[in-house]
Batch of 3 targets.
Target 1
Amino acid sequence: MKIRHLRTAGLLLCVMALAGPPRGAGQEKPVPYAPGEKLTYEVVWSVFPAGEVTATLRRVNGKPGDPFEVITTARSQGFVSLLYSVQNEFHSLFDPATDCSRSITKKINEGRRHKETRIVFDSGRKLAILDERDLTHPHDPPKHAENAAPSCVEDVVTAFYFLRRQDLQVGHSVQLPVNDGAKTYNVTVDVQAREPIQTPLGNREALRVEPKVFESLFKRKGRMLIWFSDDPQHLPLRIKFMIAVGSLTGTLRSVSEDTGAASAGSRAN
């Protein structure tokens, strides 16, 4: 198994629990999520239990109008941990009125790879400002880069929250700009089918979508599919990645309310 494929799997573990905010103030549909929402996923790599992913949404400082923050954690478990340990945490801030990402901080611990990355989106100057440290070489100077970006852009977390706010219709597509610190990609998301699926939450009708993120954002060959519940919540019931080392599938196990997250101030940004 190639290490680069395992690294890709580690990143995919961290985006398993993601699903989406509002773009533009003109939309009048009820918001399908609220601060305190916590999504927990069980992750399987082919047939092996691979780990757990959680995504918790909260409002920074707990006051109306303050930014939203999504805290996503990914932890490998069991057999997969023996091959490639993953202990990742992402903190993403976005504007709840415009859906524009403000920043994302990524703490990556995958095998022997340990790094911390922070990307700030400066809408006024239309820049994505990246600062990254390799924690395995603490005396090396940090990497710094400033790249052009739209005034409103999604990061790898808010891009998924964006989809929950959309009017997903079979046969239609959604497009959105996504930036991970370098080039901005205009990602197309095809709404492919409406179909029933089985989950720990019961049998649900779902809308299957396919974001075209491989060989661009992930720079690997593969496919990504997401099943959103066909109801006002648009819960991301299942997320599946098909990559060279097999399939990685995250299935929603529970939806709960984290009361501390609903009111706590930001500790990471």
Target 2
Amino acid sequence: MLKGAFIGVGNVAVLGHLPGWQARSDAAIVAACDSRPERREELSRALPGVAWYDSPEDLLSKEPLDFVDICTPPSTHGMLVRQALARSLHVLCEKPLVLAPEELRGLPVLSAEKERALVTVHNWLYAPALAKIGELVRSGAIGETRRVRWETLRTEPAGTAGDSDNWRLDPAQSGGGILQDHGWHALYVLSSLMASAPRTVAARLENRRQTEHAIEDTADVFLVYPSASAEVFLTWSGETRANRAEIEGTQGILKLDGGRLTLEEKNGARPVQEWTLPALTEGSHHPEWFGGVIEVFLGEVLEPRERGRNLGEATLCANVLALAKESSRRGGEPLPVDRMAARIRSR
């Protein structure tokens, strides 16, 4: 039995991660820490007998553990990951892994030196609709991917309703607006559909409606790959909650609209196949997607040869998001994704 602990006990930990850990017989959450005393009572109701600490330092120095599950605001991730790896603990961390590529410096080497897994929560890959899309793309159902269109529409920032202290609205804690939040999801999903990393990225960020906040509420991102392209549109200022995607290949097109997924012939004449799946907008914390994340994490914990793929995805996300922000500052100028420079910055 692997023993783990939550660092940060917000709704993501209790409602999103805990049900997945409770379903396991080979790993368990035995301890937790949070600076907010009221979170202790809530966690204890869901997990009686859990050991409690008021700070990560106390937890890491006093509790015998195999791994930590970090669920704190993004601005703390880099520091906490480094502290946990330094104590030879495996690390699972909520996205974004870091707010800037510079925060990655030394983490891959430290993970390798300590022989410990470092995995970011890329849970959208295990949503039924996206898992089905990934399966179809890998099977060659649409041929080689040539173009992807991704849309995430929301009516407000996540966690706004009834939340008087929403860290997502504080750029010092969140690192930005919807690009940092939903953009990270879009990028690792794209990474799973493309055969290679993007060559260039261009972006325009704007604040259409959430003008009282110092973060963007809308992002347009365009990525060019060696033999494909991707358009990503993200907004917190939509009229409705929705997710849509089109993945066009050399032989067919996959279209996702809500929970309806269709596979069409290349000329778009008619659907070849159709599936009805849970929409990505259903729910908020998605505990049903977390089982796949645990499988990837424990796979890296138990098999060193599996380590590195997820960290590579997270490194790419961090670098592309940083370039997208810079592109927007330059008026949407396309910027090269220098893989060698990204690799050097992450060491």
Target 3
Amino acid sequence: MPIVAMTREMGSLGTFIGMEAARQLGYEFIRQEIIQEAAREYHAAEQKLIEAIEQKPGFLEIMSETFRRHQIFVAAEVYDFALRDRVLIVGRWSTVLLRSVGHAIRVRVSAPLETRVRRVMERLSIGEDQALSLIRQSDEGIRARFRHVFDQEWDNPLLYDLSINTERISLEAGVAQLKALANSPEFQPTRQSLEHLTDLALAAKIKAALKAEEATTRLNVEVTASGGEVLLQGTVDSREEHQAVERIAKGVPGVRRVENQLIAMKERRLR
């Protein structure tokens, strides 16, 4: 069955559509589990992981290595959960991370601002100004992260296979549209699409493993994987870092062979 990846605006009813669609399809509904698993596996604070993908970054944070590390941890878990059969993932950049996966359906749920404000007021029993502030904070944070990390606009319709406006489309109709796509032939998994997802997941897992290790955490290594064969590219300072990256990559489950094309800059300068 296809993967369903969703993004939704606050107050759009997207979470409810996702939960009901998952129930009717017999899918696992995934959202908080990604943050929880990333925090457990990489010994990171859950709140910091959420902030790295949902809150508008400041200048110093953009320059921070911690910021980049937390994003890589979350991405690795998105791919890991996507490898499961019959999953619906809400948020966590899943729609853009899974963009190249042929059996991933990417859905955006939105509604006009005034509609969302009214819904948030009713749901949280708060005033209009507070509801508007919460919505704007959420929208601006996610939009800023998309721009900075992916150089994309969060509301770009070309990023999605289905856009649902819940001002005019009911929850039931939205679920029906999503289910129709899930059962359509063009989104069914193929050998190629499954292999591509496996390769993306393995490369992401290696990147996360490198960021989790003190010896390699500051390095930004380009990692590509194909059928368990891994290519490492980029620059490191020393031979020790060169060897550490290769050692960590080889230790990730699923890796069959590593081709290390990293350039150790200190050795290069000595030649």
